[in-house]
User: What shape does this take?
Amino acid sequence: MLRSITQNDAARIVEIYAPYVQGTAISFETEVPTIEEMKNRITEITEKFPWLVFESEGVVVGYAYASAHRSRCAYAWSVEVSVYLDTNFHRQGIGRKLYEKLFQLLKEQGAVNAFAGIALPNEGSVKLHESMGFKKIGQFEDIGYKHEKWWDVGWWQMKLQQPDRPTALKKPYLGFSAPG
Assistant: This one.
């Protein structure tokens, strides 16, 4: 089942996210956030953007969210997107389902562009994003240092809809829930 995140999901989100922080360069964070910090992130992000979770047998196994691409006002219609899955649930189509619904909600809000930054190499993430319609637009070399190594980050962009004369982004609908 796909649904909007709640504060009650914070501990499970930390559990899913921790292996990415501790054992990979997929996240450039070096310390796993506390549950309280994750609750703060949930509050901050969902004030403006959707954050979705995917449940399997009543347990959250993945999540996807959008956040501001940049803080300057003229960037308001562009978002960064992220998706994370419990490592036992990779390659089951869950990331795609989360992203499909996230992109639908972002279009309804009025977002025009979605960007994804991917620490490289990460073949699985690159394949997912390109299969969803993202195009690689550039790469920052040696931009992050983690686990005794320098990492590149590639940037992918997907046009969610054609730009028009924009209006303010609508607030996300936070009551979403549907079968996965």
About this structure: The domain at 2-170 is CATH 3.40.630.30 (Aminopeptidase). The chain has a mean pLDDT of 91. DSSP finds four helices and eight strands in the chain. Strands lie at 2-4, 51-56, 59-68, 78-85, 113-120, 135-146, 149-159, 177-178.
